[in-house]
Amino acid sequence: MTAFGPATLRIDEAAETTRISEGIRSYLRRARRKGTVVAVSGGIDSSVVAALCVRALGPERVLALQLPESESSDETLPISSELIASLGVDSRHEDISPMLEAFSCYRRRDDAIRRVIPEYGPGYRSKIVLPSVVDSDRYRIYSIVVEAPDGSQETHRLTTDAYLEIVAATNFKQRTRKVLEYFHADRLNYAVAGTPNRLEYDQGFFVKLGDGAADLKPIAHLYKSQVYAMADYLGVPESIRTRPPTTDTYSMPQSQEEFYFSLPYNLMDLCLYGHNNDVPTSEIAAATGLTEEQVGRVVRDIEQKRRTTGYLHDRPVLLGEVPEV
Q1: Which residues contact 305 (CB under 8 A, 6 or more apart)?
Q2: Three-state SS at 131
Q3: What is the dihedral of CA 276, 282, 287, 289, to 10 degrees?
């Protein structure tokens, strides 16, 4: 028997592409939609979803949306433009900054930050981070990292109120993008294709009615390393395949590990797969280079995230039966 490790997650990319493509076509026939809209960020997940939609439908039935804002990475537009050119799809570019300004997204966030760091203002940048899950069993509380105009940085633990308001304000970004995705989908009679991978879908790493909203989610069953394998098979540009995963949400560069997962995706994949498939802790530890104690912490964090984000998957609760629907 092959030892548990990265090879355990290998898939037949050609067969998976065929299966997903048929699933996309089947959904569109059932829903009577002509094509798909995909918001492309230059990240691996949205790039693979766009490429799968092209494989399933042809480039003429896929619309790619570029929806940057004032705090997006400078790489977002050029890299997503490279993807669009490689796929040969139609695209639209809409800067969502004016909409976010109208919602007071930036002001609301900055007001919350100032409750912790009063001097925070124009020219400052920020991100929120979590302590590593593998370091200790201590309760994990978000901190804010702030960079002043002179380049100096400081880190402060967030109060619960400040953290919740910062997240609530930044969630405007994902929800605004989704409004535009559905605008274009409605005008074209298209479906919206969502882009979460299995780590994000399982662990609640999405915004309800924001990037969590979609008509179909073609890669929600694929672990992140499998998404990278699909990207290679589908010919996604190398600039995207070699780009480190980011949130592209806060004004400072931010990895997904420091914001949410606390582990690189390849290790998180193995921990999640091992936990899902009852792989002994000792084997997960050997495959990841973590201690058994650290694997235990990761598994407890997986279950904690499932409990606290489960509501994101819930449908609206009806308080009376509607048997006709």
Answers
A1: 203, 204
A2: coil
A3: 120
What is the average pLDDT across 86-104? Answer: 98
Q: What is the pLDDT of residues 42-80, one digit of tens each?
A: 999 999 999 999 999 999 999 999 999 999 999 999 999
d(CA 302, CA 180): 32
Question: DSSP letter at 261?
Answer: I
d(CA 323, CA 318): 11
Which of 113-127, 131-145, 148-162, 274-288 is the least confident region? 131-145
Q: Is the dihedral of CA 84, 85, 86, 91 positive or negative?
A: positive
C-alpha–C-alpha distance, residues 165 and 113, integer Å: 9
Q: Which amino acid is at 6?
A: P
Q: Environment class of residue 48 by beta-carbon count within 10 Å: exposed (0-12), middle (13-18) or buried (19+)?
A: buried
CA distance 101 to 193: 27
* pLDDT of amino acid 227: 98
Q: Are 142 and 116 in contact (CB under 8 A)?
A: no
- For residues 150 and 237, give the distance between their C-alpha atoms in angstroms, rounded to a whole number: 36
SS3 228: helix
Nearest one of 295, 197, 305, 176 to 245, comparing CA atoms: 197
Evaluate whether 275 touches 149 at the Cβ level (below 8 Å): no
Q: What is the pLDDT of residue 1?
A: 59
Three-state secondary-structure class, residue 302: helix
What are the residues whose beta carbons fall under 8 Å from the beta carbon of 109, sequence distance 6 or more?
Answer: 165, 166, 169, 170
Cα distance between residue 96 and residue 248, in whole Å: 14
Distance from chain centroid for Cα 52: 17
Q: Measured between alpha carbons, how far is 215 from 205 in angstroms, rounded to an integer?
A: 18
The 3-class secondary structure across 192-226, one letter per residue, is: EECCCCHHHHHHCCCCCCCCCCCCECCCCCCCHHH
Place of tokens 């592409």: 17
